[in-house]
Amino acid sequence: MPPRTDAAPAVSTPALVRRFTRAERWVHRVAAALMGVCVATAACLYIPAFAELVGRRELVVRIHEWAGLMLPVPVLAGLVSRSFRLDLGHLNRWGPHDRIWLRAALRRDRRRASRPAGKFNAGQKTYAAWIAGATLVMLGTGVLMWFTHLTPLVWRTSATFVHDWLALTIGVVLAGHIGMALGDPEARHGLRTGLVSRTWAEREHPLWRP
């Protein structure tokens, strides 16, 4: 007979963990596509070289307007998904570890131990809050610019000023967001497939319990 042993059998942990469901991934893809259309058409409207290359200004304006109006739709549709609503809760919930993360980021302290994070780190939470607010402002000012009969001229002039300069700011912030994503292949894999390695999750989001 084989000798008895009291040692507990080793329990293997899965190499991959689920970070996003299909609904969450589609919300991100559709919203990103609409934002990309808004940015691209805005460039064609305001940069002379692009305007000359594309032409058909009236068509570009209409595409820009409708893409902007549709921007909130994927987020509103995503509210049907329980997992998406839970992630919105994670993004809106700040804790002491987020302040530690932000202080480390401002000091350019890249040590993993100095940047504790749950499912989303403080940088991602800040970006999500900012882009959501900026989108609502862009939507409101865009409506004032589109329906010129709704408000006095001074309101429309102010709306145009805010819309144009905020659009430039959004372009810069989006470029930074894309740059961060390009520097993290595992994060991109998670958005594409919904799965990330447990090693990455424990290293980048040590407070997350998938």
Radius of gyration: 22 Å
Name the structural class.
Answer: mainly alpha
Quaternary structure type = single chain
- What is the 3D shape? elongated
Percent strand: under 5%
Query: Taking strands numbered 1, 2, ... along the chain, how are they ordered across the largest sheet?
Result: 1-2
Proportion of helical residues? 55-70%
If you average the pLDDT, what whole number results?
A: 88
Number of helices: 10
Total E-strand runs? 2
The succession of helices and strands, N to C, reads EHHHHHHHHHEH
> What's the end-to-end separation, in Å?
42 Å
Low-confidence regions: 3-12
Main β-sheet description? 2 strands, antiparallel
Give a quick precis of the structure.
With 210 residues, the chain is an all-alpha fold.
How would you describe the overall organization of this protein?
The chain has 210 residues and is mainly alpha-helical. The chain has helices at 22-46, 48-54, 57-70, 72-78, 82-92, 96-106, 122-146, 153-182, 185-193, 198-204; strands at residues 16-18, 195-197. Strands 1-2 form a two-stranded antiparallel sheet. Helix 1 packs antiparallel against helix 3 (57-70). The longest helix is centred in the last third of the chain and has 30 residues, at 153-182. The model is unreliable at 3-12 (pLDDT under 50).
